[in-house]
Amino acid sequence: MKKYxxxxxxxxxxxxxxSCSSNDATEAEAVNPPDASDxxxxxxxxxxxxxxESLGTKFYTNGKAEEMLTTLKNAGCNTVRMRLWKNPVNGRxxxxxxxxxxxxxxxxxxxxxxxxxxxxxxxxxxxxxxxKEWENLSFxxxxxxxxxxxxxxxTEINPDIIQIGNEINSGxxxxxxxxxxxxxxxxxxxxxxxxxxxxxxxxxxxxxHYAGVNGGDTDWFFNKMKSVDYDYIGLSxxxxxxxxxxxxxxxxxxxxxxxxxxxxxxxxxxxxxxxLHNDQTNNIVGTNDQLVxxxxxxxxxxxxxxxxxxxxxxxxxxxxxxxxxxxxxxAFKGQQSTSxxxxxxxxxxxxxxxxxxxxQAFSKD
Length: 365
What we know:
Layout: E1 41-45, H1 49-54, E2 60-61, E3 64-65, H2 68-75, E4 79-84, H3 95-107, E5 111-116, H4 139-156, E6 161-164, H5 183-200, E7 205-211, H6 215-224, E8 232-237, H7 239-242, H8 246-260, E9 263-269, H9 299-315, E10 319-324
Parallel strand pairs: 1-4, 1-10, 4-5, 5-6, 6-7, 7-8, 8-9, 9-10
Antiparallel strand pairs: 2-3
């Protein structure tokens, strides 16, 4: 998630609000641990939350300050997703921060879904940079490093779901793990990570994550993954990049599930509640031609889009759940910031940080 599109204007949007009960539990105790029978994953990525909270960002429900994890839990969210970087320059999304966030999530009664980038920074279809610590390793040494690092992650965090790589359309740990130029090595790295997880945490679900919903492309990719031991197929679906036909999303889920006998999740999705912005950082979505017909850039349009995504996944016999991406990423550095959020108009919160009605999409119903 790093593409930028210029848009103009500033506007504070008032939330269409919903009621959430308060949560009085302390951080030292678990609150209503996840219901084991509630297996359909309704998740939100909260990776920016520690950084935002460290700067004093406050979130509100019906105008009352409330912890974001509490709001999500009360809305029906049962899982939070968080990224992990190997050695980030500023420590953000590093092992220590993510471990603390995972503990906090579990204390709020939420499951932990970890997306391991195997990189020091963003990894996505355009870039999969090997961590600086590993860049001079031989392939044998790199595979050992992946094994050891994965073992540490399981020991320290022990997630309920773990992605081995983030949006690995062309592999990971480039160049040695590039799926196009070094296919066997890519599969060997993924298999090493998977085997480590299976041996240390047999109940943890393993996900392979692809960005896109095009049937031909996904079919090609997951054919390559046949020898890897994993449980879930994860797909990113953003209309701005992956098309505006929700029928394609449905057909791809059904086709992949049937062909590969896997459960499918929409691992990332999002939609705007306005085309305006709340800081001076260029937003990803900001024009009408980027919208899906029938879904306006309004709080109601955002809510309906996410509900429809949830229902498409839920209706499939192979559907396992969905995750909203960037829901926490409000304009946390102030309205004049040019390095703030590219996503505040797609957050789960209005421009005054009040929970929007899209939270209703996390409902169990």
